[in-house]
Amino acid sequence: MASQNLLLLPGDGIGPEIMEEVKKVIAWFNAHGGTDFSTEDGLVGGSAYDAHGQSISEDDMSKAMAADAVIFGAVGGPKWDTVPYEVRPEAGLLRLRKDMELFANLRPAICYPALADASSLKKDVIEGLDILIVRELTGGVYFGEPKEIVDLGNGQKRGIDTQVYDTYEIERISKVAFELARTRNNKVTSMEKRNVMKSGVLWNEVVTQTHKNGYEDVTLEHMLADAGGMQLVRWPKQFDVIVTDNLFGDMLSDVAAMLTGSLGMLPSASLGAPDAKTGKRKALYEPVHGSAPDIAGTGAANPIAMIASFGMALRYSFELVEAADLLDKAIANTLDKGLRTKDIAAQGGATVTTVEIGDAIVAELGALAG
Ligand code: IPM
Ligand code: MG
């Protein structure tokens, strides 16, 4: 296999610790899995601000644009609460998403059998759960203009964000959802708030139209996003693929994460459109969880979402399906053996550290590969 370049952006908080575990997995695949990944390190978020006064430097931005895939940890923390809004840690992540045009965010929520007891929901509600949230990632209220706080001059201020979607944005994200549904259980649930929002009315229309234009073999269902949140907790197994906008997708994917036992379990892939010439997509892979500054440096962080995000890179950027399956199996086996970081441990149960989970997954890879 030709050499592939990965840009590693560990970020802040637990980001660097969990990225260390991914490095071990990358090294294992290079030594035993027939891959040839080269890696470069960059800074993003608060760590980039401390070094350059920016949430990502132009140099690292160019590296991200050129990389075969970006592997991203997490950003943010109380240390940077008071930095100017434009250079806050999250701005680095949002710039990467926007400039790389990563409009499709895939957030699978899978309940590993060994973790069915770790969820706050009853076992029969989440056992065997396998859903995929497809979140629109470069539009909506995250990026709409105007976005500002206006001084009204009468002692009052006005905070404004703009929710805005164009037809093409809704069409391309729904196509991604329909195509992924075909590789799974062939059902898409689209979520919006058409009862209150004009952007929701358009969202509903365009998803329906796109479905008519070549995806009628896929079952399509529409749900108001608030009802969708309720149904996710009531009976999540009714869903296969959920497609929704940027803000609803942010919230619903945190809800979905907890179904699986812990936010520390959920990986994600953010993909751009295939390049017209090469067919390759720009891509960034990141765990759904944040930088967890409260546990940074204590060895308590769960590296599984981060490692599984690298697994998604194997699958979606490099079409190394067998390698991706092997890594998923190694994660499942590690959990089967009862290894647990604090977030997924039974109450009063034994826990292991970030490094121990990473080492165990690498050992499982070795055992599985024979
Ligand atoms: C996520 C995060 C980000 C988001 C933050 C860190 C900007 O919550 O990826 O879900 O809101 O998209
Ligand atoms: Mg979020």
From TrEMBL:
Binds 1 Mg(2+) or Mn(2+) ion per subunit. Pathway: Amino-acid biosynthesis; L-leucine biosynthesis; L-leucine from 3-methyl-2-oxobutanoate: step 3/4. Mg(2+) binds at residues 226, 250, 254. It is an enzyme of class 1 (oxidoreductase). GO terms for cellular component: cytosol. One of its GO terms (molecular function) is NAD binding. Pfam families: Iso_dh (PF00180). The keyword Amino-acid biosynthesis applies. NAD(+) binds at residues 77-90, 290-302. SMART domains: Iso_dh (SM01329). GO terms for biological process: L-leucine biosynthetic process. The keyword Metal-binding applies. The record marks 142, 193 as: Important for catalysis. Substrate binds at residues 97, 107, 135, 226. Its EC number is 1.1.1.85. Its cofactor is Mn(2+); Mg(2+). It is found in: Cytoplasm. Residues 5-361 form the Isopropylmalate dehydrogenase-like domain. Keywords: Amino-acid biosynthesis, Branched-chain amino acid biosynthesis, Cytoplasm, Leucine biosynthesis, Magnesium, Manganese, Metal-binding, NAD, Oxidoreductase. Catalyzes the oxidation of 3-carboxy-2-hydroxy-4-methylpentanoate (3-isopropylmalate) to 3-carboxy-4-methyl-2-oxopentanoate. The product decarboxylates to 4-methyl-2 oxopentanoate. Belongs to the isocitrate and isopropylmalate dehydrogenases family. LeuB type 1 subfamily. HAMAP family: LeuB_type1. This is 3-isopropylmalate dehydrogenase. The lineage of its organism: Bacteria, Pseudomonadati, Pseudomonadota, Alphaproteobacteria, Hyphomicrobiales.
